Amino acid sequence: MKFAYFAGCTIPFRENNYELSARKVFERLGVTLVDMEGSGCCGFYVEYVDHLTWLVLAARNICIAEKMGLNIMTLCNGCLGSLAKANHILKTDPETRKKVNEILKDVDMEFKGNIRVEHLVEILAKDLGTEKIEEAVIRPLEGLKIAVHYGCHMLRPSDILEFDDPEDPKILDELVNATGATSITYMEKGICCGAPVMAIDVNLALQIGQIKLTNIEKVGADAMVTACPFCHIMYESSQLMTERELSVPVLHYPQLLGLAMGISYEELGLNMNRVDACGILKFLK
Amino acid sequence: MERPHNPSKIDSAFFEDAIKSHMGRTSPYCFQCAICSSSCPVVGEMDVKPHQMVKMMKLGLKDTLIRCKAIWQCVTCYTCTERCPQRVDLTEVLTLIKNLAARDGKTPDGIRRLLQNILTFGQIGEVGEFENTEREEMGLPPAVKVNVEDIQKLLHKTGFGSIIGFK
User: Which value does ipTM take for this structure?
Assistant: First the structure.
């Protein structure tokens, strides 16, 4: 199994340990990632100000993967949302596609519409399958209570992403349970992390982040699991930038899976998480 | 928000035009149940609530709407879109309104700064030597080189620079 890996901007800046752990886990599972040379902005914030420019930037990235003949894998929900939605519009709306292709001619590209855009979680749960993940687990994390955060753009708009039930998703909970840990229920599990307003109103963003952290503390979770660098930054920042007595480690999903597969704490970049995560090591059998 | 409404600034075709446009392509049958507002994670901070935005569109208050702070506070979580019983795609409608506001020079500074970086680096920031050294120490390959030249060509063609107020 082979994918064109779209890194986006947040990971190489702030969350290299997410990429590191994803690469380690995929290597063991026999999945090859190929870098998308020349790729650039996914277009997430561009959509806010100009719909056409957003489509053109997203289409350009999709064209790079089309030339490689591979489906795209993203680690970021923002990139997934932007690229998958643009892919859907350009596949289904011939008029818009013509307009975008006219502009792409300037850089010798043409959107053909023959690939899919997938998220790491979708690849693990659907392409490989939860059973295969269970088989790869050699050190089950029994007794570890995890609060899962999906992140909005992995699930919604559901008619385009067709990922999971947007109100009651299961896919990431099942992947967490596959590691031997237990995904626990908490209030407001589906609420946004607040990251998209970070550029406009930091306090508002942190305030939204707090809602979830408070609910997670109430149910006594040992750690939180995210699958998006943006959400991850939010939940670490919401703890570090405000005065909180309790701290909840925030793990990128492949870090949790990697531990259960027998990969070391350092190899998974867990020593780089900003909220100390070493408390979870006591759950390793 | 600007009050009272200036009648001369009412655009009676605003809603009709919006729902026919690509972005706002949505069902027009809002019946003001306000499930959008009760589902919204930022509603408490908004000067105009999501269901009021739809009403304002129907009343042709385009000029007032593009000045609202609330349109930029939307986190684009799509919860309102998913839950609307009348299939109004409010998240996309807000994209349209934000696009109109941007062309009127109202993009918030925080967003403008991020977007200006795309004009220069082809993405929201430049991954330089510092980041790549960190990656190397971790055993990661260098970050992919962005084709800035091609991206700049495309941005020039769509007039992106002038939309966000840079030449």
Answer: 0.95
